[in-house]
Structure formats: C-alpha cells, structure tokens
Amino acid sequence: MRILLVASAFNSLTQRVYAELTDAGHELDTVCGGGDDAVREAVRRHRPELVVAPMLTTAIPEDVWSRHVCLVVHPGPPGDRGPSALDWAIDGGARRWGVTVLQADAEMDAGDIWATVPFTVPEAGKSDVYRNEAADAAVAAVGLAVHRFASGSHKPSRPEDCGARPVWRPYLRQERRRIDWAADSTDTVLRKLRAADSRPGVLDELLGAQWYLHGGEREDAPRPPGTPGAPGDIVAQRAGAVCRVTRDGAVWIPRLRPRRVPGGPATFKLPAVYALGARLPASVPEVPAPLEQPAEGIAGWSDIRYEEQGDAGFLWFSFPGGAMSTDHCRRLLSAYRHALSRPTRVLVFGSRRDFFSNGIHLAVIEAADDPGAESWANIVAMDDLVEAVLRTTDRLVVSALGGNAAAGGVMLALAADEVWCRDGAVLNPHYRLMGLYGSEFWTYTLPRRVGREAAERMMCEALPLSSPAAARAGLVDRLLPVPAAEFAAEAVRTAARLARTPELDARVAAKAAARARDEAAKPLAEYRAAELAVMRRQFTGPDEPYHALRRAFVRT
C-alpha cells in the first residue's frame, strides 16, 4: 500500500517502523515536523491509502484525519490517555504495559482501537524501554493494524469494548518528578530518574545550581558504616558519572543538563563530571570499578565490564545515548587490550541491550572550548579502537549489537569478523546527515561487506535499515531473534558454542592470512590517512555544514 508516515521527529521508533514497513513491501513517504501544512502537503503529494503516526507530540489536522484513516501509535494499553504514558508507567513501577494503535479522532487517545500488544517493563530507563520492549510491541501492533486495514473487513473496536476504563494522565510535571533525597528510598529515586532519563530529566539543586538529572543506576556495593555523606551529597565519581547518597543507599547519575537561562541558548546533556566542571569538589574521589566482576562480591555499576565463560571472552559496554567521547573510546580500547591478554578463542564485544554505538560524542564536542579540536581528538580515538579490532588476528572477534547503531558505531561493529544483531535493532550506516565524510575505516570495511556500489548507495541514501535488511545486505552475519532482556544470554550461549567448534582454529588462521594479503595490497594506514584528511577539513573549516548540523542536533 501507499503509506504516509507522520511523525514529530524521525526518532528511533519512527525509523524502525519505516524500516519494517519498507521490508514488508509498502510504498512509503514521510513527513517529520513542519506543522499542519506540511502534513497536508504530504497527503496531497503522496495520496496515501493509509496514514501511520509512530510518534506525535501534536495532533493530526482534523481535515486530514476526517478524510483519511490515520493510525496513531500510543505507548500505553487500551484506555490509557495522555502525553506521558511511558513516564507514568515507569514512575509508578508498572510491571506490565502495552502499546495501542488508535484511529485518530477529535479526542486524543480515544479513537477506535486497531491493535494492541502488551509487554513486560524491565528495570531500565524510559528511553531504553521505548527503543526495545515498547518498540517491539509497537512494531507488532502496527504490523497487525496495517494487515487488518488492508483486509478491508476488519472492524476496529471501541476502547470500552476492550474492558478498559479510560484513564487520562496529564503531562508528568517536575513537581511530581522531584526527588526528596532525605525521604525517598533508592528504589523510588531510581524510578523517578528512569522515568525521565532522556527527556525531560529530573530538575534538582546541586552544588549551588539547578540541573536536570538524566539517567540513574543503582550502586549495589554496600557503604561501610560511618561513610561520610548526607542524602543528596556527591560521594564519588566514576566514568564521568557522579554517585549520590540516598536514604538507604546510593545511585549513579551519568548525565546532567543545566537549567536553561530565560532568553539563553538551549542546554544539552553532558557526562555529569564534565558538566559540573570546577563546581565538583576536588575531595570527591574517583572510584573506578574493576573491569572484571569479582568472584567474592559486588563491584557496583560500571559502563564497561569484562567476563569469561570457557574459551569465550565478553567485553560489554553501555554509553548513554550510544555516544562515545574521546574518554569513552580510550577506556574501551584499554579494556579491549585487556581482553586480548586473556587466553580465549572468541572475543565478543558489544552491548547487552539498547545502543551499541552511534559514533563520536557530539555533545561533548559542542561543549568543548574548541569543537574542531575535540572532534579531531574524538575521531582519532575512535579510529584507534577500530584499528585495534581490525588488527586482532589471534582469535575470532564478534560484535554483538543488543540495540541500534549508527555512523561510526556501525563501522566499529563491521571491524569484527562476525556481526551479531538483535532482531529489532536499526542500523544507520552513513554519516551524511551530520555533513561528514566519515572515518573508522569505513572505506575498507563497508565495501568488503556489501560491495563498492552498495556501500556508496548506503552512504548517499542515508536511510535506516532493519536488522533483517542489514543481514540481507551483508552487514549482519547472525540475527538473534530474542527479546532485549535475553540478548546477552543468547550471545553468551552462541559464543560458547562457537568457541567449541573444531574448525575455529582454521578460521582464525584464514582470517590472519586474509588480513596480511589486504595489508600488502593497501595498508590500513592508507585508508585511515585518506579518511582523516577529509575529516580534518570538515572539522576545521568554519563554513563546513558539520558545525551547524552538530549544533542543531545537540541543542534541539
């Protein structure tokens, strides 16, 4: 069918719905933002048989929904209404939730129901749940609704027919989100932080200023009796995050965003330690977590962790928003080198769930005194990491994508011998939307995977690929069709089987020989130098589009 996607932004869910409906053979057009007139123009241009809205912050114009069937994805079960559905679910500790596809009507979230799919809510941040469990349910519900519409015989149900009592929940305001550090338990603090992790954050007073707190991780290591620090105090820092005391424990807060000054520029999220800068007392200690979980106890939260099972090693990492700063890249490279020192036959590196990587950290770059210089430092550190993976010839290396990847993050994954991907992840193997040529050895790894013509097309079209489409194109070697919560365990089982295969030694020897042949034909240093020569011009040229595109992306 001809389907028009209407969305307030081409976010992760919109991209996934776009990719999945494209895979199903539908003819799609999209309109993102632009207001009512843009929607009307898109309808006139595309003449859709159906309108699907995966993500909206404003209503579809009445003259559109009254003439066309418009299906709106609502991240709540039947009867749930309001703009903060998933926020309320996580804040309230819901264990089961759902996604409902409704027909647009005069009353928000009150139209006929075309499909609804339930899901289990994990202990994770809202944006993580939205990209994974909620997205899985949304894609299933959209697919079912589109199929039912195409049949021409399905009659949608009214909300009351589903036995659901309508519940209107207003926008979840800061008054409700506010943390009482002296009274709230660690569980309560985590729910509040996770319900607001990406947007809007939790407004709080900290070190003499107002900040939005973004994200929250439990500190499981017990605090010895008499440890200084009252509830709300910062008592430690680790990997750019700060640890704050709660009534009965402590939590790590990865990112902060300063409250916007009236009339001032938009603010954006940064690693907490970076955001606080000189405000953070020198007395707050850096408390690194061991790379490997100690056998005798609890190490506490960390964004990079290494573990082993038999002949397989696993280097797990998770960076907020998938962005990798210069520091992230250097620490991950150090951890990768540690993993190479271990006597394993297979090394898996990746994300247990959610983002694998989206490449360089645009927010840290934007906040730097010299964004061009920080861009350069970041891409060099990223290239160092990718090159280390490419030059690993003594074992089989697997990249495990528990979630989405984009730009340099895709190229990091392609440096491995095999790419395993959760069925449900979305890949964006391009740089063009940020005005960049790209590096991370993409001119070597992408053509060898998909061919030169397909590589150039991917870079030019700049379209998202579903994980099955990426597998068909040659970007992904193995799809793991499991829920997000089960991805890591499935990757561990699969790697353990691979490490036991008798032909593995021959595969490793063959890949070492292939790397030597490729190096003789054209050294990796030549690919790197050619890519970075273009990137240096784009980073340092004051009129390069990268700077305006980066600024708009970070500050939106």
Automatic annotation (TrEMBL):
Domain Formyl transferase N-terminal: 36-136
Residue ranges annotated for the Formyl transferase C-terminal domain, each copy included: 172-258
InterPro entries listed in its UniProt record: ClpP/crotonase-like_dom_sf (IPR029045), Enoyl-CoA_hydra/iso (IPR001753), Formyl_trans_C (IPR005793), Formyl_transf_N (IPR002376), Formyl_transf_N_sf (IPR036477), Formyl_transferase-like_C_sf (IPR011034), HoxX-like (IPR047180), NiFe-hyd_mat_HypX/HoxX (IPR009188)
GO molecular function: catalytic activity
Coiled coil: none
Highest taxon listed in the record's lineage: Bacteria
Family annotation (SUPFAM superfamilies): ClpP/crotonase, FMT C-terminal domain-like, Formyltransferase
Protein name, entry field: Hydrogenase maturation protein
